[in-house]
Amino acid sequence: MSATVIVADNSDEQREDNYVTPLPRRATTSADRAAVDPDGSASPGTGYAITIPGDPAQAAVLRRHVRFVAALPRDESEVLEQLASELFNNAVIHTRSRLPGGSVTVTVAKLTDPARTQIKVIDDGTEDDSAAPCVQPTDPDRVGGLGMFLVDHYADRWGTLRGPDGRTTVWFEVDRRPPA
């Protein structure tokens, strides 16, 4: 017996299929919640992390999570939301996160010295373990391929890590403006 499920996404459109999208869940592992310390100088802190299904419709959930946790003025949070969304879409397009049951973990950490917000996106890894996210040369005739270019352009720092479990972490930081 097959059940028909109506799944509403945030665009107010509905799709009819036999798949129920799992709900986002809080990520509780310390590795997923820990901020990346690019220079290894100190423990940079812990962020707030959620794990969401590797489904493009979940990008709106990701953007709300970033906006809520960052708690910054709209003009500052928009950059974070856009860059995080680009990394999420890359994970959904290029990694095993797109497969049934796949997921993406997103961590938002508000760090000090200097004041900055760090976001890391952890995917389920690629089929080809040698593949790594990188900035592609811009090509006006190509559709897509600008996600890492945007991260490179708008983030103050960014990088990638490959975990022993094969998962890939792409992280970026944006410095926060001092209060007026």
Explain how this protein is built.
- GO terms for molecular function: ATP binding; protein serine/threonine kinase activity.
- This is ATP-binding protein.
- Residues 1-46 are annotated as: Disordered.
- The strands form 2 sheets. This protein has a 6-stranded antiparallel beta sheet with strand order 3-4-5-6-8-7, with helices on one face.
- With 180 residues, it is an alpha+beta fold.
- The N and C termini lie far apart (61 Å).
- Helix content is 25%, strand content 26%.
- It has 4 helices and 8 strands; from the N terminus they run E-E-E-H-E-H-H-E-E-H-E-E.
- Helix 2 packs antiparallel against helix 3.
- It is globular, with a radius of gyration of 17 Å.
- Mean pLDDT is 80; it is low at 1-15.
- A hairpin with a 4-residue loop joins strand 5 and strand 6 (116-122).
- The protein has one domain: Heat Shock Protein 90 (2-Layer Sandwich), CATH 3.30.565.10.
